[in-house]
Every structure is written in structure tokens, then in C-alpha cells.
Amino acid sequence: MWTHKNTFAIGGLENIGYAPGQDFLIVLSSQGQGIFNCKTGEKVARQYDDSDSWEKFNESTNSIVGFDVLENVEINTCGLYGEDNLSKTTQDGWALTVSEPEPDDKPFEKYLVKRIYLQSADKKEKIFVGKDGACELRAFGFSDTGDTFVIALSCDLTIYSRT
């Protein structure tokens, strides 16, 4: 089963990307960069915008070279810049889907939101895992391992992992 590991407030979240074949996620924001261990739900490294972190961002490929635990690892990112290229399914059949814009819950039903659901491999369960609302949906999807998934909004990051 899947467990909500953590939600982090990240103002100005722009792009995210999983390290290839790993459950480490890099987050690029207007304030700098962070690396998250999505298995544990912990932030493991941080670089602030006063460093040269954004100078490593390749605008033509939307990729960046990592730092700290991801030193010298090239990571493809998506979000504000570049299409959402994260996998929406796992090898064993779990899937993430997003609804068309629909009215939010009461008392905010005059606002339209996109809801994100996790669907079980047997298609019998559809579990609500997040929505956009006041913050814009940047990207969502599974890691290459299929053991974690994230939902990245312009203002926060939500992490889930298999138990």
C-alpha cells in the first residue's frame, strides 16, 4: 500500500526531476534547489539561490547536474519549464490520473480544481491523493523504481511511498 510521507511548502516551485533509477528528487525553485529522499520523505540537501545552482540548469534540455548526494548526476526535470515527463504508471500497474477542471469542495465550489487520483493495479480502487486549487499543478508522477510518487504544485511538494 501507499503512504503519504510528507508535504513541504516550497514557494516558487518551478521544476522537479527524479534522479535516474532512484527515489531521490531534485526540486528547483525561485529560492534555490533541494534534494528529497522520497522513500523516507526527508529533505536531504539544500542549495540557496546565492550559489551557482541555476547556472547548471540546461534550458534546452530542462536538465540539471545534481549536487550533494546527486553530485555529477544529470537529472531531467519538468514543470514550469518543459512538459511533465514523469511516468504515470508503475510496472506492476498502479496509475496516477488527473481530472478535468471541476468545482472544488464546499464552500469553494465556485473555483475549479484538478484532482489527482491513484488507481490500484486491479482498477478496483481510485484513491484521491491531491489537487491544485490556489497553487498551479507543475508535475506529478512515479520514480523510475515505481516505489514513490510526487505531486508538485507551484507552492508545495507532496511525497508518497510504498510501505
Concise description?
This protein is 0% helix and 48% strand. By secondary structure, the chain is mostly beta strands. The chain has one domain.
What can you see in these coordinates?
With 163 residues, the chain is an all-beta fold. It has one domain. The chain is built from no helices and 16 strands.
Shape: globular
Number of helices: 0
Q: Proportion of β residues?
A: over 45%
Q: Compute the number of strand runs.
A: 16
Query: What is Rg?
Result: 16 Å
Domain count: 1
Residue windows where pLDDT falls under 50 for at least 5 positions? none
Which descriptors apply to this entry?
163 residues, globular, mainly beta, single chain, five-stranded antiparallel sheet, four-stranded antiparallel sheet
Layout of secondary structure:
Elements: E1 2-9, E2 13-18, E3 24-29, E4 32-37, E5 42-48, E6 63-65, E7 74-76, E8 78-79, E9 95-98, E10 102-103, E11 112-113, E12 115-119, E13 126-131, E14 137-142, E15 148-153, E16 156-162
Antiparallel strand pairs: 1-16, 2-3, 2-8, 3-4, 4-5, 6-7, 9-12, 10-11, 12-13, 14-15, 15-16
